[in-house]
Each structure stands twice: as structure tokens, then as C-alpha cells.
Amino acid sequence: MNKIITIGREFGSGGRELGRRLARELGFDYYDKEILTAIAEHTSLSEEFVKEVVEGRPRQLYPITVNRSFMYLDTQPIQQAGAVFHAQQEIIRELAGKSDCVIVGRCADYILREQKPFRIFVYADMQSRIERCRARAEAGEKLTDKEYKQQITKMDKARASYYSFYTDLKWGDKLNYELCVNTTNQDIPTLVTVLAKLFQ
Amino acid sequence: MNKIITIGREFGSGGRELGRRLARELGFDYYDKEILTAIAEHTSLSEEFVKEVVEGRPRQLYPITVNRSFMYLDTQPIQQAGAVFHAQQEIIRELAGKSDCVIVGRCADYILREQKPFRIFVYADMQSRIERCRARAEAGEKLTDKEYKQQITKMDKARASYYSFYTDLKWGDKLNYELCVNTTNQDIPTLVTVLAKLFQ
User: Fold this and answer.
1) CA nearest to A124 within chain B
2) Is the pTM of this model over 0.95?
């Protein structure tokens, strides 16, 4: 059976970089944003919409209290979100069946649970995440610490609700991962050199 | 500076065994229960009392609401508990200054925070912890799953309150550790062989 490593990560924790470098270090395939493209192709939905569902705010698609009759509730977005998740499942299973790989996000830990992937969760303290966000910001982006914190909290909330909606598990709960890695004050390349040893 | 690894662990997670084996694998000194003996010697308190304070229920020593005049509150246990913690601090700092080592429990992660120890937290799901407790039970001990669960919950609660009392941090919170390791369905000796690579 292929070796599969899944990476869940807090926004700004450097989890994506960690996953990408870990895959390179181990010679594994690496899947992240390309999954979105594949889902879009699979479902004929726009990549933008897929991104919104997968990374975004699925809750908006499922109003709990609506100020109008249920009969009028437009269920199309719900069906589309469901289609996205199903396509995601199929694609992730297909990729995991092909070769040893590292998959970042996308509930891959849950989708592949029967294959027993090695599940890593990457996290860091808020200050360290703010600094990571600032370091990777595009030129001209000048946000205050408070603004970064708001962005980080919002992204984490979206990830948590997407994850718990589809898996019925609590995102970031230690019990859902084999290993939780704190990247506070850590240099990701150095960390990856060490972590890679676990799989060599 | 010496390499210091501290291990926090949920009751029944195999954290102590993991720490002991990790120390052996790395050729590090290992400190666990011997710290209690040293504290008892240091404070002239009985080892039994020290154990009760360090592993037990410090909250009982600090009633928040007492149904009698404050004047009558017997402060001796409080002072003794304080003495235990101070002796513990001194002893742990002394041990950490002597050689590379693994220290299990005893708020060592917090006490040694300036030395930047590598802080590991070991945890597992309830069923796996119940099975570990049963496997290591003394002959004749026949507890039901429910009874083990009660014991585990009680021990964890005591550890959590001791830890948060002295450190003002949340016991088991990912952010207080470099690495959190899930031992659910894991064979500890195998796991240690892999983990040891992180330090070699």
C-alpha cells in the first residue's frame, strides 16, 4: 500500500510549505491546489466556486434559520457543494491509490481513513503566524497585526467549519492526528529535514 | 547546553514508557519517580505526601470557599505544597544542568522553559488507554471499562489542575508543546525507534 501523509494546518502556520518540502525531501507526490482544478474539471463548476466551497464558507450554503418559507429555499448551492465534496473524495482516493504522496488539507485525513494515512497537524502561536503571513505577503500589502489576526481567525474558522461539516470531527483536535507539530519560532526547512527522518 | 526532552502525558497513554525507552535509545538520563524521592529528602516531607501533592489533588489544599472563618484556615498544607513545588523546581533545574535527559511530568516543561526543552505531549483515545491500563494492571485487578475510564478521567483531571495551578497554562494544550504524539494503536517500542531519529 502506498505511504500517504496528510497535513492539516492552521492558517499561517507554514503547514503548506512543510507539506511541500516534506514531499520533496521524501520523493513523494504532492497534492494541494491541483485538487481544486481536478474537482472543477470533474464537476464542470468554476474553479472559483470550487475554491469557495472547499476553502471557504460552506455554512453560508446551509442556512439554519431562513427568513422565508422552506419551499423557496434554493437548494442548488447545497447540491453543488455536495457535488464538490464527492468529486473531492473520488479524486483524493484516486491520487492516493497512484503513489506515495503528501496531501495538504481537503479533509484528506478523513477521506482516506481506511487507508490509514499518517496524519499530521501543523500549528503555531498567533504571533508567529502573523509574522509568517507578513513575510509571505505580496508587495504593497500592509496590514496591522490586528488585521492579520482577524484574517487568520476567519480562515481557521472557515477551515474548522468545513472540516467538521463533512467529517463530524473537530478540526485540530489532537486525537484526529498521529502527530501535531508546533512551528512557533521554527525554521520550516530545518524542521522538515528532521521530520522526514520519521518516514525514511 | 544539554539536550532536554520533557514528556507530558495523558494517563494510560504510554507516555512514561515512551519517555523511558526514548532516554535509553538516546543514551540520555531519565528522570521520573526519582524526583519524588529527591523532593522528599529535600523537604523532610514523607514521600507519600510529596506524591500526593505532585501527582494528586493540589486543589484540595486550596479551598476557594470555606465554610468557616478565614482565621481558622489551616495554612500548613498550603505551605507544604508550596515547599514541594519549590523543591521540585530546584531539583529539576539541577538535574537538567547535569546532562542530556528526558524528564517525565512534574511541570518540567514549564520549570525549564528558559532552557528551551523539546516538549512532547503523549496522548491516545480512551479505548486505547483503557487497554493499556488493563495490560499493565497487577494480577488480580479486575476493573470494567467504565471503572478504568473513571480512573483515567480522575488522574487526568488531577494532572491538569496541578499543571494549570503552577504554570497558569492549560495542560495538554498543543501550543505548550513542540510535538504531540498519538499512541492510539501504536506499539511504543516501534514508535520510540522512529521518534529517536528526531534527536539523532
Assistant:
1) B175
2) no
Other CB atoms within 10 A of residue B128 CB: 18
- With an 8 Å Cβ cutoff, are A195 and B198 in contact? yes
Over B124-161, what HEC string results?
CCHHHHHHHHHHCCCCCCCCCHHHHHHHHHHHHHHHHH
CA–CA separation, B188 vs B177, rounded Å?
A: 19
Residues in B whose CB is inside 8 Å of some CB of A read 121, 123, 125, 172, 174-175, 177-182, 184, 194-195, 197-198, 200
- ipTM comes to 0.80
- Specify whether the backbone of B62 is left (phi greater than 0), alpha (psi in -120 to 50) or beta: beta
β-strand A179-182 against B179-182: which pairing, if any?
antiparallel
Cα–Cα dist A129/A137, whole Å: 12
Helix runs in A136-180, H state only: 145-167
Place of cell 485538487: A35
pLDDT digits (tens, 9 = 90+) for B68-122: 444 444 556 667 777 778 888 888 898 899 899 999 998 999 999 999 999 999 9
- In contact, B114 and B42? CB cutoff 8 Å: no
Contact B109, B8 (CB under 8 A): yes
CB A176 within 8 A of CB A119: yes
Residues facing B31 on adjacent strands: B103
> A172 to chain B: which residues are within 8 Å by CB?
174
CB-based burial, B20-44: b 16+ in 10 Å, e otherwise: bbbbebbebebbbeebbebbbebbe
* Chain B residues lying within 8 Å of A198, measured CB to CB: 194-195, 197-198
Q: How many CB atoms lie within 10 A of CB B169?
A: 15
CA distance A86 to chain B (A): 29
- B47 min Cα distance to partner chain A (Å): 34
Number of neighbours of residue A7 by Cβ within 10 angstroms: 28
Contact between A54 and A42 under an 8 Å Cβ cutoff? The reply is no
